[in-house]
Structure formats: structure tokens, C-alpha cells
Amino acid sequence: MENKNSGKEYWKSLREYYDPEELKKIKHDEFLEGAIDFVDLESMPPISRRKFLALLSASSAFAFAACTNYKDKGEIVPYNRQPEEIILGKANYYASTLNCCSRNCSVLIKTREGRPIKIDGNPEHPVSQGKVCVRGQASILNLYDPDRLGEPLQKLSEKVFSSVSWKSAEDQIKKSLNEAVKNGKEIAIISRKINSATALQVLSEFVETYPTAKLYFYDVLTNKNQFYAWKECYNLDSVPSVKLEQAKVILAIESDFLNSDGDFVNQTIRYAKTRNVDDLKNFSRLYVLEGNLTLTGANADYRIKLRSDFIREFLFGLINEINKRVKKQLTIPYNLSQLIAQVDLNVVVKKFNLDEKVIKTLVEDLIRNRGRSVVLAGNRLSKEENILILLINEILDATNLYDFSQSLISLSPENDLNDFQELITKIKKGNVEVLINFDANPVYDLSNLDFKEALKKVNLTVTLSELKTETASLSDFILPIHNPLESWNDFQTYLNVINLQQPVINPLYNTRQKESIILTFVYNEPYHEKMYHKKLKSRWEKEVYPKIKPAVDFESFWYASLHDGFVNLTNNQNIRPTFTLKNFKGSTKTYSDRILLGIHSGAYTFDGRFANNGWLYELPHPITKIVWDNYATVSPAFAKRHNIENGDVIEITNGKVKSQLPVFIQAGVCDNAIFLELGFGHSECGEIGRGVGVNVNKFLNLSSSSRFFDYVSFVNTGKKYNLVTAQEHHALDDTFVKDFHRKRKIIQEGTLEEYEKNKNFIQAERKELLSIVEEVEYKGVKWAMAIDMNKCTGCNVCVVSCIAENNIPMVGKDQVEKGREMHWMRIDTYFSGTPEDVLVSNQPMLCQHCDNAPCENVCPVSATNHSSDGLNQMAYNRCVGTRYCANNCPYKVRRFNFFDFRSEFANDYQYREPLNFLNNPEVTVRSRGVMEKCTFCIQRIMEARQETIEKGIEFDGSGVMTACQQACPSSAIVFGNMNDPKSEIARLRKHDLAYYVLEETNVKPNVSYITRLRNINSEGV
Amino acid sequence: MDNKYLDYILKIRVPVTVFFIILSFAITYFVSRPERDGIGYAPEQPIPFSHKLHAGEMGIDCKYCHTSVEKSRFASVPSLNICMNCHTVSRKDRPTIIQLTTAYQNNQPIKWKRIHRLADFAYFNHSVHVNRGISCEECHGDVKNMDVVKQVSSFTMASCLDCHRNAKVKLNYISSINNGPENCFACHR
């Protein structure tokens, strides 16, 4: 019975690794400590029995008195003129584009009776192919955020604002603009990087009208080093994507390409195609070289842990070693060839204590698979490291894998951080009269610069923003702007495609499109809603339409493009640029004795522009599972050496910059380094985001070639901070043995080689199980799901999609701590190996809809029971809240509404208008005291059934997609009718690699998992 | 037996017991009256629209006004532009039509009194029933002959299941009818 390949002992967290006893106790109890504590009687206000009865009778008397006609059933108010495209109860879909990051993904927005309720990728779009990232899924929440600004505000005094009419705000700003031009003082416009040619045109028109105006663009999570590298090596202004689907060997260097680097969605789609267990010939092998443990590292077949500042030396060694054997003629500068020749890979391996065998295999693999091996560079690397990686790719003929038809371009210029430093100097000298923040938040984003003080020196600061951000609250005028779902725009991030953005809802508040606000100053004409739309359309008529030369007139072309959400441009895609590097700046000095600080993009919070989005804060971090906080990640060895524990608050110092953060000890992180994540620590933004985590933007490096790395020192403050992780919650039931995850076959893994040799290695281990109940035969449709663990990267998009689809509330940090999070779906993470060299296994866990569901037997009121199509049903209106079912569920996927979390969390935030518009009308909004869980998206099943009845055909279960399945970028989730022999799900149920979690309990789950195969060499590293 | 005790039984116990028995019968009767389920509810509408005239005498098809009944969960109460299809021309001089026209022109909605209502946790779907050939009258009664629409049948789970379980008997005019689904998820999600 021993599973040879996985002689690993799985552990879910370091606490479990070191102290299994404590955890056993936690797992033994149904709920975490405190979860079922409810009221502390001591803290209740004293009230006598008599008084209570008096109040009770008085209130019931009032209630009766207030009773109106019980027969009254309210009113129905139909449309006056019903829009033609609206059928009540049917969703409409519109293609548009998001503005979540500088990628501007094309999406399909589901609207019901005019309200957008769900965002998914645009299936027709060549890049996003129907998928969208976590932020894209969650961005629907921003539209209905009750904390959005609804009126223009004018500052009266420090922190005191009063609402002002648009007219008056405009007049005052215009006056100052004109004065600035008259006095020859600068008007500075700060913006995030803009990928819209039309918006850039508007800004340049503004500069023409007001000649003293200057534009500044920034992108905190910049990828300009890649652009620089491509410019220098190939003289190209674009960066091609990589055809990962054709790659056999992938080496990702500091590149979290499966989560936060580059185009996550497109890369995941491509990568997943190489992890197909039915196409073993093209099964890829992923090497990841990184310092911090990222999601990509967690998916690696071989993970090489190397501190991020030593990467350059490693690259020199790698190039040296590879080129020694490949002997490719290259035109590279002399000093570079010298630098390469100096470094011997074996010496590097010894110096940094890397695993010789792994490196040997890596080099072998890269060379053997020339033309199908590729090295990916992380955005955060410096220009030089990017150049070196391009060089390796050139040697490896990885240029075959460059997809020039999907080349990333950068429409807007991007200023260096030093330009902003200069701007601040100018402001302090009094040379800047007006500062316009064009949907930018420099006080937060560039908090390594002194914008806070500088803003005081500007005569007039105007901030265009959706939220009252840090910058906005220091401005003289805050002009509220449209959400992307209320706006018109066009975006071009790739050479060959332009995305269109169209409003899918009328503005909810008295807001304006940000480009139109600028246009009112340019044109000197009063604002109207169509202003920018007109501009956009006329630019398309003049510039885009002639380029494409379609066979139809412009109007038809325009509406067709709006319908599709994008247009394809035909560019010369067969370019084969040649590698010509002219010069190379020498190596930089590294200090192995100093502590490295690495700054990462927030796993979900990104650069922090989604400041008030609670879904993203509550989503457990893909590796550490921490919610509602950021922290300093250190390695176990480092923590031991410096005597720090989880939750200790350390003060990190870099020159004058200081910050206090709690520590989280994470296995698999390189030694002598601290890693931080961006996107937290907003002091102003709204109810949800205020004070969540710590702002670490101030550590962004100004002087070095990569702003994400620096050397720091730290001290332990002796303070403690409570970090809440969702990791140890709902741990699957423990037995006496420590390696229960393997023994109980929750995670089953094998190697590719093993599978090739013995296709039956998983099925052979299955035992015949005795059943004490009679087998139920399911005729007709029977629903089942299969999750391919080879494709699943643990990206969490499914979880957010589920939240949006099923009206799942946020509960807040204190409730997650008690194990009361409400997510119907979660990604479990299991670690194996040692804390220094860690292997990660992710597993999406949701209701398994067991045929012999243990939850059903114990429900005293039969609120949960089985349907004839194999679903484990949950009738909320019948549930009385005994929680027996949750206690009896072996998978711990049932969620109890301990409160009405919508009112419990953040002062009724989730009951505030207009957040109610976000709810999916096809799903009940659950209240306090009922149990809930995954329903396999029954509303979607019923909708598909309705359509077949409408057409008069028999319902065979095809055409149903659950929300998680639809959102999964790697298409790891398959759902369907397993009784239909032609269906994909029926094939996967019978797959050699299919297994059920906790199968020996004989609950007969309807969710099967496809065993993950690690592509590891026979040397068995 | 002790006289005093018999006295106690006759004077107190029996009347109290009888009282409670009557009370429980009374409450049960009161609560289970069809009226409690809304049967017979016929509120006055803001415009006295007559289904008898439109659907009965003139024979306009139900689906002409309740447009989405075959396509969606909701049958939908017609928007005013549907009324105006005819009433821009016909009967323009009647006071109620003038009321309708003014509302339409001023973009004011008309607040109809709701007659049929299911609890929010029940997701009834009109289209699946209508597309199976089940007639509107099955639940809504003979609307064609109602001047003022009133609720005829009970809209409780019991009455739903009554049909779902005995479709062949109840809906014998549809030859291919099978029993409806009985599982919770069919209506509750």
C-alpha cells in the first residue's frame, strides 16, 4: 500500500511541523476556540426580568399596532418604456474593458435588469480568452462600494470638506489654471500609466491649451526594465509574450508568472496546456529560481531557492555553462563576455549552497530541449538581469517560443522615480501652481517620496478619484469620477488588439468621466456625458477605422467593435529581430552578510489601488493563508537565529525610512532576507481598507536599477501582533499519525515517470469498500465535478468568482480568526519536505456532494438532503441551525451564519446602499442562523434546464458551467453530467489518475481529483 | 369522591379544558382559512384594468402583454408602452385612459397592487411551466372572466407539490406530462 513516490510527510503549517500535539487538539474540536463563544453575560447591560418583560410586551403591542393589512402584498412597478433588450429575469452580457492594472483585460459583464452583477473574461478575446484575474472578478465590488465619492468636494480646512457644485469647482480650478499659465508656473498632472491613446490625446490637448502643464506617469509595479532590455537587445519597443504552451522546460527566474508577474491570465492558460496528463509527450517541466516562496514556486517541479540579489551571479554562471556546451556565436560586448567567463557555475552552486543535482538536471534539460526550453524573467528584476535572461534564451533558441503576435506595448511614457523627486523639489521651491492627480494616488503609491509635505506647497491640488484616498484628503478639490463600468474608453496593451470600454450602467452618483473633466478645461464648454464618447468615436473614425479597412461603414464597424469589446489589428507579425547588444553595465555589488529586503506585488491587493475592496483582503494569501494583513516574511532559520517568532513586530530600517511589521515565518523562503508585500496600509480610502496592514511603498528603492530590492536592518520591538491565517482552520480530521494527509489520501501525487511506467498506480491502491446502505441508482442526469491538480495552480480566481456568484459576505479579520469565514470554496495548502526545502500541494476544496453524505443523516429537520440528480441540497428556509451537519462533514466545507455577517461586519457596510445591487438575484441572501455551502451553482443548472424546456429538447446536462469552472484560467475544473458517456466529466471520472479525497469513508464524493504528477527526474532529486 | 374535588373539576377544570379546545379549534380555523393564503384577495388597482374585457371579450392573448412568460422566470407586468400600442388610438377620451396616457408621457410609473406572491426563497419559474403546456388558468384561475383580478388558488408549497406529484391527473390535458421535480433545489437555492 505504500505510495513510493511520496514518502513525504505533509504538514499544513510550521506550527503543525513543530507542534502536532497542539494542533491535534484544535482539529479534535469541531470549531476553533472561541468560535462558539457567543455572549459574555458579564458584559451585557444589566436589565431586570421585570423590565425585560415590560419592554417585550410594549414592543409587541407596538408591533401589533403597526400591523397593516396582512393581505397586502406590496406593489409591482413595471417600466414605463421597457428597454427592448431587457427581459426581466434574463441576464444581458456586455463586452467591456477593466482598468484593474496596466493590462486592461477585456471582459464580459453580466447585467441583470441593468445592474452589473458579475464579471468574467471575454471569451472571444485573443489574450484573456474568457478568463480574468482575481482583481477583475472582485472589481465589481468597487462599482457598488458605498464609500465611493458621490459629490465634488472642496477643502475648507485641514481634513474638513464640504460638497460643492461641479460648476463652482470647475470655475475655481479654471481660474487657477489660467493664472498658472499667466505667471509661467507649472501645472503638474500626475497619472498612473495610461494605455489609452484617446486619453493620452486628451492630456496632450490639455498641455497644448495650458503650455506650462507637464505630465508625469508612474506605475509602482513597473515592467519597464523588460522594455529597456528588449530595446537594448533587439531594438524593439515591445515585449512579446511567450508561447508557453509549446515549451517543454520552463525556468522562471524571480518570476511569479502564475500569479503576479506579467499577464497572469494568459500565461496560466498557456502553461496549463502543458500540464495535460493525456499528452505526456508534451508535459512540461517547471523550474523556479526565487528567493521568496511564490505561487509559481509552489507549482514548480524543481524549486531552487536563491536569494534574489545573487541571481545575477547565477545567471553569469548559467550562461557560461550553457554556452560552453552549445557554443553559439553571439555578438555581445567584450566586458559582458569577460564577466561571463569569470563565473563558473559549479563555484556559484557551491557558494550559494545550491543542490548540485538539480542544477545539473536543469542545465541538461535546458540544452537537451533547445528550442523548446525558455527562461522567464520576473518584472522585478533589473534591466541587466533581464538582458542576461534574453541572452540565455538566445543561446537556447527560445526565440522560437516568442509570440510576436501578442507583443506587449507601452503607449504612455513612464517617468522614473527620480523625475518625481525633481517634481517635489520644484514644488518645494514654489514653482508648481496647480497639481492635478488624474486618478492617481501619489501620497500612497510613492510614499518613498515626500508628497505629503510637498502638497502643502502647491497653490491648488485637484484630485480626480473614485475614493477619498490619501492624496484626495490632502487636496483642495476632490472630483469624483466614474467607475470603469460607467466609463467610455479604449485601451491598447498589445500591439495587435485594441480593447473598447463601454458603460454598462448609468452613473450611480453625481460623478464624471475623468477624461471629460479634463476636456471641460480644454474646450471651455460645459460638461455633458457624451463629451469623451464623442472624442473617442471621432478618434476611432480618423485613426483606427482607416487602419483596419473593414468592408462596412464606420457606424457599423463601431457598433460591431463595441459588441465584441475589441478589434484586431493586423501588424507584421513575422518579425525576427536579431540580438545585438551594444554595451552592458558591469555587475553590481552584493552584500551576502546584509539583510536583503524584497518587495513583492500584493498577492491579490496588487499595488494597492483596490484600497477598499474587502473581497481581496479576506481572500487567504495563496501561500501563507493570512487574511486582512501584510507582514514581513522570513525563513525559519533566520527567525531562529534572530530569536523571533510568528507575530513578533519588527522595525525595519533603511536609512531614514522605518516601518514596523509583524513577522510571519514561512518555510521555503531564502535565508537572510525579508520579503514584504505591497497594497496594504491605507490611511484613507473608506471603511474597509483603512488601517489594514502596513504601507511598504516607502521602501521602494530610488537609486538601484530595480526598485524592489534593497539592504536593510531590523530590530525586534518586543511587541506582538495577531496575524490571522485561514490555514489551520477546517483541517481535515486528524488521526494519531502525523502524516495523515498521505495516509488518508487527501493529497495523492506521483511522478510523470511512475505514471508512464504504471498507468494504474493510483487505482491499484484503491480498496473495495463495504457499504452499509443500499446503493441508490441515479437515472437521468447526475452531476459531478473533476479537478485536475496538474492544471490547478492555486490562484484563487475560482474562490472570488464563487463569492460574486453566490452572494457570499465578508466577515472580517476577527471572525476569520474564529474560523467563521464564509467562502464556499477554499484552496487548501499542504507542505511537505523540510522547512528549508519545501514542497507545496494546493487543493481546491468545496462541497463534495457525496452520494452517502454524512451531513444528511444527522440533520434533525432534513434541511439538507439528496436530490435525484445527485446534488447535496441545502434548504435554508428549513434549516434551524443545529450545526450537526458541519460537525459531521469530513471535508469541513459547510459554513454557518453565526451572525448576519452583512450587518455584523464593519458597521453594516454590506447593508449600505448601493451594495444590495451587487447581489445575484437568483441566489438567496442568507441570514443569521442557517448553514450554507456550495450548491454546484444550482441557479445555473436550473437556467440551463429552463432553456432546454423552452426549446422542447431533453435536458442532458450539457451547457452548464459553474462559476468556479467558468473562472478557472487553467481550465482545471470540469463539471457536467457523469451519466452522459460522451461528456468530458464521464471520461475524467474513469481516468487512471482520478481519486477521491477520504475515499475510505465511503461517502462517495461527486468531486474527483486528478492526481498531480510532478515531472521529476529518475535521479530522484 | 370528595365533593369539593368534583366541584373543582366541574367548575374549573372542565371549563378551562373546553375553553382551550375551542380556542385551538378557533385558531386553527382562523389560520387555515383559504383567505389566509390570499385566496379571494382582489385589491383595487390604480387603473381599473379589466382582464374580462381585454383577454375575454376581445380575446387578446395573455402573452401579448405578459411578454416574458415563455422566456423567463417572470411573466412580467406589462410596461406602459405595451398599453400604449393600442391606447394611443383607442378609447383616448376615457378618463382612465387619459390617466394612463399622462403617466406614460410624464414617465411616471404606475404602481399596480400585487396579487400573487410567492415567498422570496421560492424560485418559481413561469417559462418552464408555460413551455410544458400548462395553462395559465391552472394557478391564476379564469382571469378571462374577471373584471377585477383576484387570487383563486393557494400559493403554498403544498399546492405546488400537489401538482408536481399528481401531474397526470391534474394536468390530464397534456399527454406527455410527467411529474415535476420534488427536490428542494428545484425551487430553493
Task: Tell me what the structure shows.
In chain A, 29% of the residues lie in helices and 20% in strands. Chain A is α/β, with parallel strands linked by helices and 1021 residues long. Chain A has a seven-stranded mixed sheet with strand order 6-5-17-16-15-7-8, with helices on both faces. In chain A, a hairpin with a 2-residue loop joins strand 24 and strand 25 (657-665). In chain A, helix 4 packs parallel to helix 25. Chain A starts with 13 loop residues before the first helix and ends in a 7-residue tail after the last strand. In chain A, 53% of the residues are buried. The model of chain A is unreliable at 1-7 and 729-737 (pLDDT under 50). Chain B has nine helices and one strand. Chain B has helices spanning 3-32, 51-57, 62-65, 80-87, 95-105, 126-131, 137-140, 157-165, 167-170; one strand at 112-113. In chain B, 44% of the residues lie in helices and 1% in strands. Chain B folds into two domains: 3-32; 37-77 and 112-186, no CATH class.
List keywords for this structure.
heterodimer; A: 1021 residues; alpha/beta; Alpha-Beta Plaits; Rossmann fold; Dimethylsulfoxide Reductase, domain 2; 7-stranded mixed β-sheet; 6-stranded mixed β-sheet; disordered N terminus; B: 189 residues; mainly alpha; 2 domains; 44% helix; 1% strand
